[in-house]
Write a structure and sequence with these properties.
The chain is an alpha/beta fold and about 240 residues long. The protein has 8 helices and 10 strands. It has a single domain, classed as Copper homeostasis (CutC) domain (TIM Barrel, Alpha-Beta Barrel), CATH 3.20.20.380. Helix 2 links the parallel strand 2 and strand 3.
Amino acid sequence: MTGLEVCANSFTSALAAERGGAIRIELCENMAEDGTTPSYATIKMAKERLKIAIWPIIRPRGGDFLYTDDEFELMKIDLQISKELGCDGIVFGILLSDGKIDKERCKLLVDLAYPMPVAFHRAFDGCNDLEKALEDIIQLGFTRVLTSGGAENAQNGIKKLATLVELANNRIEIMPGAGINLQNIVDIKEKTGAKVFHASARIKICSNMDFVNDEHTIEQTSTELVKKMVEALKK
């Protein structure tokens, strides 16, 4: 199946993504930090009002993916909340200080999430050996990995993405992400062999405030942009 997963930074963005034809939502907040765990209310409303699959990201803060004991406890609590709210899966990633997958902690979360499936996010691109990390993730039981091929964006990581798709050999889904847009999604699809792609499809929207003391814009997913990207993948 070919499709588009949308990284939605709010309930409004998730709703727009569903209306646009996305196959799945990676639900998060704080896109300025590349996404952190969404609020309880955001997850709850998304599950209650949307039919699309909801996968919250479990990430207690921005920055690196080396977590303290307290941060790991927060991840376990947020995972349990997501499970209780009936989420379709969760997304997380934990590394060791040397750039390897933290297999011990990841295994604990995989087991805690069961029977929910789990996906590994772009912490993968911070690994010191992507091919070894891929095998570790497969052995841990992840169903999907989001990656730019270790590059700044998926366009620059096309060659490595193609290699990862080949190495995965259908044992896990390789989902290209980072900088994917309407202009490059077809090229990335054709050159990597991947089937599902990750994008925020965001646009800037002006505030509806009549009284303006300071300029504000809202960034949220565009239904029309999602539709165009989905249609491009179908051609």
